Amino acid sequence: MFTTKHQIVRYNKLDKCFQNFGREYSIEDLLECVNEAIIDFDSDSSGVQIRTLRKDIAFMRSVYNAPIETIKGSNGTNYYRYSDRSFSINKSPLSYTEAEQLKNAISILQRFEGSPEFEWINELGPLLNDKFGLKKQGQKVISLETNIDYKGYEYITPLFNAIINKTVLEITYAPYNKKEYIVTFHPYFLKQYNNRWFVFGYNEFNQMSQWNLALDRILKIENSTKKYITDTTDWFDFFDEIIGVSKDPSKSTEKVILEFSKEQAPYVQTKPLHGTQKGKLQENGSFVVEIQVVINYELEMRILSFGEKVKVIAPEDLVTAISSRINLLSQIY
Which of 195, 257, 310, 313 has the most CB atoms in a 10 Å sphere around its CB? Predict the structure, then answer.
């Protein structure tokens, strides 16, 4: 069902008017009441015209099966009300269109079943199906890439709740090849990258507000009674400047220029490396790409994943870093 601006506000106001048997609402009265409700909801709105109001009434009759009757009043003017005093669109069963939309939504949600971070859907799907009398969808048609053995999945829900409820945490953490430690952490944002989950927040020990912890390295989470320090970071802008999750606060974005082989060019054209990507096809069929990012470990790994099908043109320090990695790699074989 397509919903225009303020449509639900209008329907709910009309619903209340039609339920009020103590007043005779003419079409002009209904228009006045509806426009008052719209302006209360949106002070910048100028309301609607009678033509829209008549369409709303027709829609409620056809979609909600609302028993709206037109009665000639004592003054000779027609007024509107429900013939059934107990009726309300908020108590009515779902229309066919709404039922189909909800069924499709449940179907999409159930595609995530089996993915540990979406365990709640296992309970939600059957509940909605039972509540609204919808049949469970058949064979699943979407498969998401996920690692069911990933160690950090059990921490997604408590971290999410801590972010929502602004709770400080005491996290026992074990970095690779280092001794475990406890960090007082103010969680702000959860991010998935390359089938791993990371939580970003304020680390009280080093006083860094964009610190990240890998969930698979967390050993234990406990709530703290310390006061939560709020965050003003725009996390979507934060990630717009990088590939992956690592970002050195002392570094700025740089122009990275890469030249992809003729064979690789179509893939990079259709699946850009980054949102800032600009590309130009060369006469020899190669594809030169420019991206504006903060250089980090994940960018280097992404470049190396293309093997011999890419060459780093600039900046020079990235050329040196990739060349050094390739030289070390060649020594293994």
Answer: 310
N-term to C-term CA, the chain: 62
Q: What is the mean pLDDT of residues 140-148?
A: 60
DSSP class per residue in 36-95: HHHHHH-TT-----HHHHHHHHHHHHHHS---EEEEE-TTS-EEEEESSTT--TTTSPPP
Residue 194's φ and ψ, nearest 5 degrees, are 55, 45
Tokens of 272: 């850009």
Stretch 62-76: mean pLDDT: 87
Distance CA 333, CA 325 (A): 13
CA distances for 195 relative to 52, 71, 119, 246, 276, angstroms: 49, 64, 17, 15, 23
φ, ψ for residue 112, nearest 5 deg: -90, -5
**For residue 125, what pLDDT is reported?**
56
Match 């980054």 to its residue by tokens: 274
pLDDT at 19 over 70: yes
Map residue 278 onto helix, strand or coil.
strand
**Is residue 153 within 8 Å of 116, Cβ to Cβ?**
yes
Pairwise CA distance, residues 295 & 83, whole Å? 69
> What mean pLDDT do residues 90-119 have?
62
Helix (H) / strand (E) containing 145: none
HSE at residue 188, side-chain half, CA atoms within 13 A, is 19
Q: Which long-range contacts (CB under 8 A, 24 or more apart) does 296-302 make?
A: 296/242, 296/243, 296/244, 296/246, 296/247, 296/248, 297/244, 297/246, 298/193, 298/194, 298/242, 298/243, 298/244, 298/245, 298/246, 299/242, 299/243, 299/244, 299/256, 300/325, 302/243, 302/244, 302/273
State how beta strands 196-203 and 208-214 pair. antiparallel
- Would you say residue 2 has pLDDT above 60? no
Whether the CB-CB separation of 80 and 27 falls below 8 Å is answered with yes
Q: Identify any residues that bridge with 192 across adjacent strands, giving them in sequence order.
A: 197
Q: Which residue has the tokens 């506000």?
A: 9
